[in-house]
Design goal:
The structure holds 2 protein chains of 2 kinds.
Chain A (H helix, E strand, L loop, with lengths): L10 H7 L10 H7 L31 E10 L2 E11 L3 E7 L5 H8 L7 E6 L2 E2 L5 H7 L1 E4 L11 H6 L13 H14 L15 H13 L5 E5 L7 H16 L3 E5 L3 H7 L2 E6 L2 E7 L5 H9 L17 E10 L3 E9 L3 E6 L5 H9 L6 E6 L2 E2 L4 H7 L2 E4 L3 H4 L7 H6 L3 H4 L7 H14 L16 H13 L5 E5 L7 H16 L3 E5 L3 H7 L2 E6 L2 E7 L5 H9 L8
Chain B lengths: L1 H25 L7 H9 L2 H15 L7 H18 L5 H26 L3 H20 L11 H8 L1 E2 L2 E2 H19 L1 H11 L1 H6 L4 H27 L10 H11 L11 H20 L4 H33 L9 H4 L6
Antiparallel strand pairs in B: 1-2
Helix pairs in contact in B: 1-13, 3-8, 3-9, 3-11, 3-12, 3-13, 4-5, 4-6, 4-11, 5-6, 5-11, 7-11, 8-9, 9-11, 12-13, 12-14
Classes of the chains: A alpha/beta, B mainly alpha.
The structure holds adenosine-5'-triphosphate and magnesium ion.
Amino acid sequence: MVVNRFTILKGEAMAESDDEPGPTSSHPGASADAAPATPAAPLGPAAPLGPAAPLGPSTRTPAPTLVVRGLVKHFGPVVALARAELEVRPGEIHALVGENGAGKSTLVKLLAGVYQPTAGQMLLDGAPLEPRTPADARDAGVAVIYQEPTLFPDLSVAENVFMGRLLTGRGGLVSRKAMRERTRELLATLGVEIDPDRPALGLSIADQQLVEIVKAVSLDAKLLVMDEPTAALSGVEVDRLFAVARQLRDRGAAVVFISHRFDEIFALSDRITVMRDGEHVSTQDTAATDTATIVRQMVGRAVDTMFPRTERTPGAVVLEVQGLTRAGTFEGVDLHVRAGEILGIAGLVGSGRSEVVRAVFGIDRYDSGTVRVDGRVLAQDGPEQAMRHGLALVPEDRRRQGLHTDLSVARNVALTLRRRLSRGGILTSGAEYRVAHEWAATLQVKARDLDAVAGTLSGGNQQKVVLAKWLSTTPRVLLIDEPTRGIDVGTKAEVHRLLDRLAGDGVAVVMISSELPEVLGMSDRVLVMHEGRVTAVLDRADADPETVMSAATGTVRSAVA
Amino acid sequence: MTRVLRRRETSIALALVILVVVATTANDAFLLSSDGFRDLLLAPSLLVLLAVGQAAVIITRNVDLSVSSTLGLVAFATGSMFVSSPGLSVPVVMLLGILLGAALGAVNGGLVTSARVPSLVITLGTLYAYRGITVIWAGTDRISAGDMPRSFLAIGTERVLGIPVVALVALVVVVGAGVYLGYARTGREFYAIGSEPVAARLCGLPVGRRVFFAFVLSGTLAGLAGVLFAARYATVASNAGTGLELQAVAAAVIGGVAIFGGSGTVAGAALGAVLLATIDRALPILGIPDFWQQAVVGVLIIGAIVLDRVLAVRTARRLRSTGVAEAVRPLPAARVTGGVP
Ligand SMILES: Nc1ncnc2c1ncn2[C@@H]1O[C@H](COP(=O)(O)OP(=O)(O)OP(=O)(O)O)[C@@H](O)[C@H]1O
Ligand SMILES: [Mg+2]
């Protein structure tokens, strides 16, 4: 089923809306463990973990596969991890959650041997785990899916999967055939069709992510760590990934799963560890807790996850698209958005949503159709032209398309404003800082300071910088693709408030989102796409999860409004 | 992908054939005389050796500008060894010469991997430094035919089945390096490193070691070229090989090795070298003045790069239509952030 991504942000809702085994109906191993658990036995920092101090009296608890004790990591003056604790048992899926910049990815990279800890200890099956390189970690039995993509665009998918341990055949030479076949099998277990011989160049983010997953799964490791593996996937693929993760767990692997999506966390995990500011906050059984508790522990306060909505009356049509077509990608797309209106675009990954907005913004070409801004035709003349007419696009693949990883945060934010901020051609750093400071504060960017190199920020904070960069241009039409991908709960609410405020100020907003609650909560109208075509346009009142889902999966072709 | 690459190699081979045919029509001595045929194979041989090493280095997203100076220093050292120690046998001297090249390559590799300074800068430095050593050592002296044993000089002129030995050596190197980069585990890792250095680290590839080895390989081949230079030209002055470094880079680029690493083949680079050397010989025969030759090479390089770009965009578009559309790969400006040249 396709439902996962589209369920409500509450763990409890899962059991009813999902016919996959939810968090309560379960697999034998975990329920046996969960049953006798002392209620939510939270492991405060005061109770160090490890074989020396086993959890509770239960003798059935197997010896943990991974133990992390008092792990500290400094990057110069930055304390990324202050005192991390983590314990993962064999046959367990363990969710690791925390705000952007809480230190999750840093912990992952220490496990993977990318960085070396400043202090603390890691044990794998009771033996010290001290990888000096990612190869050491892999040899020890740790497989990692990193938050950032690690594919080689020039190499084939099969070579990507096996890089670092390419399969060899006769005479010790690399056997492309063996790798191709093995990759095909692995892809088949995920139910994905990607040609193993094609280069990774040009794969969609979702497919890239799937290749990463195949790569990690192919290691058949004792410990599999997945750092936000689902950020770019749609419901179907998420379900397949979950199936694979459960298989691995049932075979006795220990799985660490990082995500900012609570529906996923509650659907998949057996236990949850919360981190805040590089420190361990709590570890508890998933069955014995709920979203609100976890959020409070993550953020340190209660977060209002209600979608903000100020009443507004949409003005004149600002952006109008008619019959937009690009062969093989999208066909006959009509849409319009008014000033002060939020148009949500729903659909599965691959339905052509992102491609349409990219074409509108002038990044990709289209074969036929027209784009009008304020009634005047916008020629196909590249993004510069679109920007001159007041359009802005926050792209989906922000790290690659939006962020200059080697420039400072301030420079990144001010980049799109160069002309406006400069006096006689000279960009004053004072002006740059003022803007950057304002936006960094609004979006709660967690960085040492505005001079920090953007590449050293946590994944979610990089997303925020790109958001700030485009929002600060005060566009008249904002095209925004997955506004809250990879962003933690606290900031998510902030982004929603911001979008609402922009619409209130008369900006026309086109928002693509794979999170149904977001689409339904934020939009004045919802446009649904399936396989490159618009299958429904719904008013806020008519947009309910079932209607949108059936239009997105193409099961019902409702009349286009 | 291989299909596209293969197309590049075939197109160069085709250009080569056309050039030879045209030049032969203008003057049939170009190919049909015994000397003409020999020169066709002999003239590009040393450049082929340099281009193969250069290709290996460029594939890892680095560049080795010092090869011409390595060639010069090794050529002079080889001659000097014959002068100073007549007791050494020819194979021993040749081996020592090649080892000197490897050592000079190791210096490059060591500096690039440990200093974290772009290889462009490091090898620009050693380009001057190695040449400087040669100049100090040689002064105005030159090694001439009389200083070297006849059996050594014979290597430069001898033929087997009508094919010059030097050309055979180059061919063996091309095949060997081609198999290594195309089919050896560690060779494939060169491509991964050049394609995305950060990902290579995260995959656990020993990036430093591979890059180091690429420079040693380049130095070794430049050393081999230096030894063969001494044998073939029979005179070595302190300026031997000057300017070949850019020709080697040009050969690799024309042959389809992406300047930002990650793709291209040794065979392509070798064909590029043959094309360059043949153009050098053919243009005078076609009555094209000297100064135009440089321009032709320039046009070829730019043409090759433009072709690359067009093909890349096309490939991306084709690949996109098979999956969900995504961005065309970021332009080199964006890719260079993590890399070297
Ligand atoms: N190489 C580095 N140099 C300097 N600081 C770093 C580096 N890597 C991470 N940090 C800092 O360490 C902190 C923790 O980052 P980390 O990437 O672990 O967060 P995270 O929990 O994964 O967040 P997200 O949910 O956004 O992915 C951040 O403040 C980040 O800026
Ligand atoms: Mg992270």
